[in-house]
Fold each of these.
Amino acid sequence: MYFEKPGKTNTAKTLELAFARGKELGLDEVVLSTSKGDTAYQALDIFTGFGITAVTYHCGFKEPFKAVMDPDVRADLEQKGVRVVSATHALSGLERSFFNKFSGAYPVLIVADTLRLFGQGTKVAVEVAIMAADAGTLTGKDIVSIGGTSQGADTALILKPAHQTGLFDMRIREIVCKPRQF
C-alpha cells in the first residue's frame, strides 16, 4: 500500500497492515522505531503473539546525557513485555561526527542516503532492524520492521535482519507500505 504523504497520520494503518502481513507469513517478531514510546504503545494493542522490540534514540541525541524516552515510559513498556533498545544509530553513529567536523563523504552515510531514495521510513526500518540485531533482541528469522518519517510510523518492511558487521547479508523481502510522496 502507498500512502499519499508521510507522517504519523499513517501510524495506525501501518501497524495494522504490518501485523496482517506478518501473521500471513507466520512471522512472530516486530521491530519498530519510537522516540518517546507512542508507537510502541499502539503496537502493543495490535501485535498480539509477536515479540516487540522498540528502538529509540541513543542517550544524548537531543540533549547531552539525556534520554529521549522517559525512564518511566521505558520501564512501563518493558514491564508489558516490550524489549526497548536505546543505541547509537546504525546508519550514522560516529561517522556523523566526522561529517560534522570535516565534511566529506562517508560510506555509512552514503548507505543511509541511498535508502532514503525509498523514503525516510525505509531508512529507519532498516536501521532499527540493525540496532535490534546488535542489541541481541532478534532470533535471525525474518521480521516485520517499521519506521517513520519524523513522527509516527509510515513504512513497514518484511526483512531478514543482520548485524552491522553483516549489513550486506540483510534482505528486504517486501515493502508492506510506504509513503508515495516524501
Amino acid sequence: PIPANDKASTWLINTYLDTDTRVARGDGGSVFVMTREPASEESREAAVAEILAEAAVIEVAAETLVDE
C-alpha cells in the first residue's frame, strides 16, 4: 500500500512507438511493453520480437544521453 501523505510519489514514463505499441518505464526499474493483440500467434511473436529490439535501441540511446 502507498502511504496517504504528500511525500509519497512515483513516476512512469510512456514511450509510444506507434499506434499499437507502448513502452513504459517505472521509477523502480520496471519496464512494461504493451501492444494491441495481433490477429495470429505468428504475427504476435514477430511483433514482440520487433518491440524488444526497438526497446533495446531506445534503452541504449537513453543511456548514451545520460552518460553525456
Amino acid sequence: MDSNLKEQLVRAVFRFRRMNMELPPELEIRMGEFFLLKQISGDGPCHGPDSRLADVHHHLHMTRPAVSQMLNALEKKELIHREIDRNDRRKISVTLTEKGLSTLDQAMAYMDGTMIKTISRFGEDNTRQLIALLTLLADVLEKVSHENGDALSANNKGENGLD
C-alpha cells in the first residue's frame, strides 16, 4: 500500500477536525449545543412520543456526560428549561425557552446560509458523492476501530492471564 496515501488520508481527516465549524459569537452557543437544541426542539432523529433524552447522545455521537454538560450550559444560558416528571422522577422534560427558540432560529438561518453557499460552490452532485463517501468512510473507520478494540481487549486478557 502507498504510504503517501495513508498520510494524505490522515491529514485530510485531521484538517476537517481542525476546521471546527463555529457559529457567530453573538449566538453564544457552540456547534454541539446547536445540534442539541435542534434535537430538543423536535427537529432531530430521535424525537417522538417514545423518545428519551438518554438516547440523544447516541444520535448526536456524543457521550452521556458531554450531553449532560451541554444541558447544564444551555440551562445556565437560559436556553432550555428542565422539569422532573411528577409521576416518574426518573424522567426529565427538557424544553426550549423563548430565548432558546430565538437562538436556534438564528443558528438555523446561519447554518442554512452556510450550507447553501457550500453546496452551491461544491456542486450538488459532488455533495451527494461526498456524503456517500464520508458515510462509507465513517462506517469503515468505526468497524476497524471496533475490531482493533476487540483485538486490544483480547491481547490485554492474554497478557493478564485472564483467557
Amino acid sequence: RCAQAWAELQRAKSAGLVREVGVSNFRDADIRRIGAGAGAEPPAAVQNKFSPYHPGDVHNGPGDDYVKLVGKAGAALVGYCPLSAWPSALSAIKDPHIAEIAARVGRSPAQARAAAT
C-alpha cells in the first residue's frame, strides 16, 4: 500500500498539484522501497513519532538508525510527540538525563529535546 500511495503522490507532484510531497509513519522497509524505484524522487520529509523513548520507526531492527536511514533517502525527518512519555512512564521533560543535557547547553528540557529531533 505504501508504494501505491507514493506513486499517487508522485503523480500529483508531476501534475503540478503540489510542490513537494512527504510521507508519515512509513516503516524503514517502506522508505527503502520507495527510494529503490527507477527515477524515484525521495520524499521531501518523513514524519514519524520521535522521542528519547521512541527514536523513529517502531519496526526497526536492533541497531537500525532511523535518522540516518531517512537522511540517506534524501528526506528531512520531522518528529512529532517529542515530549511524549509513551511508552515510558517518565516524561522527557522530567527525565534527569534530559535535564542534565539541557542545563549543560543552557536550554530548558523541552528546548533541548525538541532541538535533538
